[in-house]
Every structure is written in C-alpha cells, then in structure tokens.
Amino acid sequence: MKTASLPADFQPQNDCLKDKVILVTGATGGYGRAMSKIYAEAGATVILLGKNVRMLEEIYDQIEASGAPQPAIYPLNLEGATEKDYYDMAENIGKEFGRLDGLLHAAALLGAPTPFEHSDSETWFKVMQVNLNAPYLLTKHAIGLLKQPERSSLVFMTDDKPGTYWDAYMVSKGGIDRLASLLAREFDGSGLHVNCVNPGPTRTGLQLRAFPALDSNRDLPLPEQHRDLFLYLMSDQLEENEACFRP
Q1: For residue 49, what is the domain's CATH number?
Q2: Residue 191, Cα to own-chain centre: how many angstroms?
Q3: Of 24, 80, 143, 228, which has the most beta carbons under 10 Å away?
Q4: Which of 39, 60, 86, 169 is catalytic?
Q5: Is 136 among the residues known to form the active site?
Q6: What is the number of domains present in the chain?
Q7: How confident is the model over 182-199, as pLDDT tens digits?
C-alpha cells in the first residue's frame, strides 16, 4: 500500500459526518472510544461494537449527553464470535439502518511477547481470531451494507511494532495489510474506499501493556490528537484508496 498523510488543506466542519452511519469495533478501547465520540460529535450515528456492555453503555450515555445523534450498541465478543454472529449482525444493522457509510476496525488483541520457540499456541489463535479473522468475517458480511451509499469508507488499523517476540500480533497485522490491499483493488473505481491507518506509538492501553516501562509513554499523543485524520477517512472529501495513512 502507498503511504499517505492527512491533506494539509483539510479543515473538518463541525457536521462533516452528518447523517452517516458508522460502525466502530473495539469501541471501548483507546482508539475505538475516542473515534466513536469524535464521529458522533461530527454528526454521525455510531454503532458501538464491543464485548463489555457496561463500558459500551457508559460511552453511549456520554454521546447522548453531548447532544450528538443517538448511537447504537452492539455487544459482541470477537474472540468467540462465529460466522453466524457476523451474519446476524449485518442482518440486524441492515434492518435498522439499511446501510453503512463507514466501518472502522479498531479492535485489537496484543497477546504476549515470547521467543518464537516458546510461543503459546492458544494465544496465537486468540490473537488471530480478534485481529484477523474477525475483521475478515465482519467485513465479508458487512460489505453489502457498505455498497449501499454512493460512497463509503472501510478503515483498518495496522501496526509495524519494532523488535521481536510479537509473533501473533505482527503476523495478524501483516495479514490485515494484505486484506485491505486486496479489497481496495477489488473495489477500486466504486464508491467504497479502503485504507489503513498506522498511528504509531500512542498513549493507549495497548501501548502501555506492550511497553510498560518506557518513560516516554507519558509524552506520547493521545488518540484524540489524530482526530482530523480519522474524520478525513470517513468524510466525503476522502479521495485515497489502498493507502496507509500515518499521522
């Protein structure tokens, strides 16, 4: 995928996502939570997908209290979800909203850093299930909804974490790069834009679990500081396809 960055002249309007329906996975995580609120503030109806109902309800209440469009909650544990779960999800969203204008895959499972010969097979399968199988299955069953509007956006989050010992995590993210590239080429010329974001080190729970002892963690940007980039990727001004955006 070609490397891209936020256009210098992009200035998001307060209602730049007005009337859009956007599904966010991992809505209780660092990026998922932040972007769900940001999309709602920009006028979108956000479908919050996550496994922790209490936390989803908390985000729901915060969005509703802000005066943004009423969001929706879709509880789903990606680690144990079956293909039928994704089929049912798409059916339910189709009945309720009729389309999807955007899908942000923000859910991720880190796993554990271990030398390859001592890696844990169970962890490998769990990480692959959440980071690669879930985006594949969810996108497969949601693609019909994403094709309904004249234009829509499918965004995958990727990573090129340096160093070794992150076998399952890095292989899963490599698979996401390939999946996004394949879909971008297949739908090139249509109204569906497919891109990736590699945000780099950010002050999230995932970063703190991966590198808990780094003094530099406190100086890292928050997900909210990448607001304009994530708004651009869901906006009608998005032109790129098959690009990996870096802040």
Answers
A1: 3.40.50.720
A2: 19
A3: 24
A4: 169
A5: no
A6: 1
A7: 999 999 999 999 999 999
